[in-house]
Amino acid sequence: MAFIEDSKIKKYIEQIRFRNVESDADKVYESIRNRISGETVSRVDRSPLWRYVAIAASVLLLVTNSFFIFNGSKEEKKNRISYLEVVAVPGTKTRLVLPDSSIVWLNGSATIRYPQVFTGNERAVEFMGEGLFEVTENREQPFVVNVEGMRIQVLGTLFNVWADADSDYVETTLLDGSVALFLGKNHTSVADHILGINQQAVFNRKSQLLEVKDVSAQTYSSWVTHQFHFEDQTMEEIAHLLERAFGVKIYIQSDTIRNMRLNARFTQQESVEEILSILQIPAHYTYQKKQGAFYIR
User: Fold this and answer.
1) Which of 142, 139, 194 is nearest to 172 (CA)?
2) What domains appear along the chain, each with residue ranges and CATH number?
3) Whole-prediction pTM value?
4) Residue 106 C-alpha from the chain's centroid
5) Element (H or E) spanning 85, and its range?
6) Residue 242 CB neighbour total at 10 angstroms
7) pLDDT tens readout for residues 155-206
């Protein structure tokens, strides 16, 4: 790409005429910055003189850039993809409808990033936290969930993903349909594993090892409905599910209780305290609540 000579740039600039308008210099500054970068810019304190200098420099940059990309500017605008990012408020559940009508439930603090319109040969989103995905079927455009160290590809299905930023593990649980798991740097069309209904895949991001086991998948979506079905699960597993569902911490201070297996169903949207109170009857434990956390002994 050939650069324009300084003399020609000066000639074009001299031909520019500005009309006096009433405006807010701060807003003009932010607007021009946004047009150049294409992204939201956080305000940074500057002296008034620097703001005007920045505006002048930005106008010059826009003028000169218009020569360099004039032929392709319309096409670039047409192909530009806008992304949205949603973060669930801690302690809440957020229901989100994606552009393809797929539904995602976000657990507290979960984050999802997706395009305003799905284009190309796949519907790809980036995700972190816990979410329940109900994907609209489209065989021509597979749905892909990208988490750190792993890619989950589906056509149309119902599955739960837990990928906490502070954990080394990514947990994928399938309730309906099927999902293909691609680990690490596997960018081929051949999946590392195909998950079946009532199966859970636990991927260790550090060791790159994948463990698949049979589970009661409905249990892992109970954080949305608050209807819990515990089937031959250890108290440690139950505590982990309750932590995620209610946004609390549960500390089990006994190995015997931690490894005890229980069967129980809660269908009336009981609170975490009600559930722990009922479970203590067969498990023979006591618990105490301190500063929002539960201690079982």
Assistant:
1) 194
2) 6-78 (no CATH), 83-217 (2.60.120.1440), 226-296 (3.55.50.30)
3) 0.70
4) 8
5) strand 83-87
6) 21
7) 889 999 999 988 999 999 999 999 999 998 888 989 999 999 999 999 999 9
